[in-house]
Task: inverse folding
């Protein structure tokens, strides 16, 4: 029996639950869905009277919750999720819509209106598929609702108040929680119990099935536009090689059918970004004259198979500064680009076409120009340029990864094989490594820090701290971001002498820049500057247990009770398969490792940090904060 094929369709996607409701998180986590939680900031203030029926209000609120998160993640966090799920639960009795009570009196009013009566619980759900085109967010919304009828027993005043004083009603629609004490008030439930708790799981899975498994022709003909497909169980859905994972693709398939356009020979090109688009599903007629889809094209695998070509095209175009040449609406012909980058015309033209196919350049009859996202992230002198990290990927990581097979067999990092006698740490042997190599590394770290600093700096309220020391803080990007957000903070960056000697060219300029202090030293050997908040950003995942022990013992010893340690790392999910970026980074075989949330928590607790909080930021780095135990602990 395959219980999870539909949920499995979401495994490789960045799924975000736009809800602070612990019940929704639990329901979805319990079925093995992996997702990030980004609570929506959408205020539930839509005018109820403008909706003909109550469930339309719940659906619209759910949709707005999800769209707010999708937009925020796209704009603020520079990271577009694949799918955002929003939900809204309301209780209706007569014509009244009940949401969460604002206070105890309100809870009393709500619960009394439910006493002895049957009411409906509606949950509206929105599944928003997101994609980014030329830096613009594109969304496809699928929504639905579920209704469950609940009947309350007659509630005495005493019982009502006892229940209200339990505190349970306050964060729940209608002022009760059927899953806990509120269950005692209920005489019967007709419909999906989980729908009352906040998420109609069964209907959700059916919706996913509808989206991810294209119905065959005969099915489509009987499906009314808004009804649930006839998937009674999910056993018949296999999760093999097929790539029906692109919901847009199926939408267009459905549309073609519904519109009555003959399918024979119809080519459904999936709406997908990226270069590798050989995917087309051609419906063919079988012997009995029924239109069928042939075996599905393994687009995911083909994409992975060809991925190295795409990466290398990006690397080479960056290295040859193609995006610098084409910045700010500059349009050039291949021959002009070739002249400027001192390359062959035919080679340049192929590279430019490759970049255009990858969505990095725009090609018109006048020539080639940068797309918006190339202007923002690929031009080397732009504030959020990833150029430095791309060059690091090309010049260092690429070589390392060509030795992956040996690395896997031996379980060791292949720096020697890839780079000759170089030591593993660029900054360890200052006489050996070129200034250029160190600068390149610092530029790479600088560009990643630029992308992540804001989300790390604002992941937690740090206003209680006065002094911060960013250990291994490199060019000070996070330090500057912290001072900007918390002007009263004194921030020191502590890093190796070779790093500190080179930071000046990375400093922001302008009269409103609050200074950050830079101190040279080795955090393994030297005394650490005093601070009430220490930061380790992208440090621990590269260190072995012994080094971590030395460093965390040292920080723990210097921290006074109430001081804290903030880690910025990618937090893996508990199964350690997501996000792929962290998992793939592990293949570098550094002596360290990537950790899950519970592992970071355990690690901090081991060194005397308590009340550990983890914030999945939606950006490339997540944040983990732990407080040094007070003596009372
Ligand atoms: C009726 C009922 C509702 N509820 C909960 C489900 C929802 O969390 C809540 C209704 O409020 P919602 O506004 O739907 O959700 P929320 O505010 O908790 O979270 P978010 O807006 O971030 O998604 O009431 C129960 O837990 N048990 C119940 O029996």
Result:
């Amino acid at each position: 029996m395959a219980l999870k094929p539909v949920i499995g369709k979401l495994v490789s996607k960045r799924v975000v639950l736009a809800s602070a409701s612990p019940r929704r998180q639990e329901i979805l986590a319990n079925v093995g869905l992996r997702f990030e939680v980004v609570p929506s900031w959408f205020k539930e203030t839509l005018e109820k009277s403008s909706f003909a029926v109550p469930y339309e209000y719940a659906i619209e609120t759910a949709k707005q919750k999800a769209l707010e998160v999708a937009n925020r993640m796209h704009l603020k966090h520079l990271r577009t999720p694949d799918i955002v799920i929003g939900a809204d639960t309301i209780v209706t009795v007569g014509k009244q819509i009940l949401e969460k009570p604002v206070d105890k009196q309100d809870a009393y009013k709500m619960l009394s209106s439910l006493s002895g009566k049957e009411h409906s619980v509606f949950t509206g759900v929105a599944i928003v598929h997101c994609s980014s085109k030329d830096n613009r967010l594109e969304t496809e919304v699928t929504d639905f609702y579920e209704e469950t009828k609940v009947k309350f027993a007659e509630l005495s005043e005493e019982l009502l108040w006892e229940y209200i004083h339990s505190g349970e009603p306050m964060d729940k629609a209608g002022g009760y929680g059927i899953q806990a004490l509120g269950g005692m008030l209920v005489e019967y439930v007709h419909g999906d119990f989980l729908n009352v708790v906040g998420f109609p799981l069964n209907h959700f899975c059916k919706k996913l099935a509808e989206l991810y498994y294209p119905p065959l022709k005969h099915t489509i003909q009987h499906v009314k536009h808004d009804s649930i497909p006839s998937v009674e169980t999910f056993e018949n859905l296999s999760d093999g090689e097929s790539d029906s994972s692109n919901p847009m693709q199926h939408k267009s398939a459905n549309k073609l059918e519904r519109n009555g356009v003959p399918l024979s020979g119809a080519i459904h090109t999936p709406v997908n970004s990226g270069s590798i688009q050989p995917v087309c599903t051609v419906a063919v007629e079988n012997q009995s004259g029924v239109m069928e889809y042939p075996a599905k094209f393994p687009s995911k695998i083909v994409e992975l198979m060809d991925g190295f070509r795409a990466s290398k095209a990006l690397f080479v175009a960056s290295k040859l500064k193609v995006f610098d040449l084409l910045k700010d609406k500059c349009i050039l012909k291949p021959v002009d680009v070739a002249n400027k980058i001192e390359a062959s015309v035919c080679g340049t033209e192929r590279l430019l076409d490759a970049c255009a196919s990858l969505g990095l350049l725009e090609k018109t009859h006048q020539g080639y120009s940068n797309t918006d996202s190339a202007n923002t992230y690929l031009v080397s002198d732009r504030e959020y340029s990833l150029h430095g990290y791309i060059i690091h990927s090309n010049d260092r990581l690429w070589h390392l990864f060509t030795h992956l097979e040996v690395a896997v067999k031996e379980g060791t990092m292949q720096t020697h094989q890839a780079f000759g006698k170089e030591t593993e740490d660029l900054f360890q042997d200052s006489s050996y490594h070129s200034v250029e190599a160190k600068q390149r590394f610092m530029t790479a770290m600088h560009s990643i820090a630029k992308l992540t600093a804001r989300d790390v700096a604002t992941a937690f309220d740090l206003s209680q701290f006065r002094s911060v020391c960013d250990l291994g803080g490199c060019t000070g990007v996070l330090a500057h971001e912290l001072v900007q957000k918390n002007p009263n903070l004194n921030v020191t960056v502590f890093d190796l002498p070779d790093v500190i000697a080179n930071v000046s060219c990375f400093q922001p300029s302008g009269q409103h820049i609050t200074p950050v202090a830079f101190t040279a030293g080795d955090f393994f050997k030297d005394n650490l500057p005093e601070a009430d908040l220490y930061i380790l950003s992208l440090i621990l995942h590269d260190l072995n247990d012994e080094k971590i022990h030395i460093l965390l013992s040292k920080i723990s010893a210097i921290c006074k009770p109430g001081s804290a340690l903030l880690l910025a790392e990618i937090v893996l999910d508990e199964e350690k398969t997501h996000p792929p970026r962290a998992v793939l980074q592990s293949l570098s075989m550094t002596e360290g490792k990537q950790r899950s949330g519970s592992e970071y928590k355990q690690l901090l607790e081991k060194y005397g940090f308590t009340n550990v909080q983890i914030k999945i930021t939606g950006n490339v780095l997540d944040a983990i904060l732990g407080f040094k135990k007070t003596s009372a602990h």
Q: What stands out?
A: Confidence is low (pLDDT under 50) at residues 217-282. Residues 19-21, 23, 39-40, 44, 65, 87-89, 91, 100, 121, 171-174, 176-179, 182, 196-198 surround thymidine-5'-triphosphate (CB under 6 Å). The two ends are 48 Å apart (CA to CA). Residues 435-457 form the longest helix (23 residues).
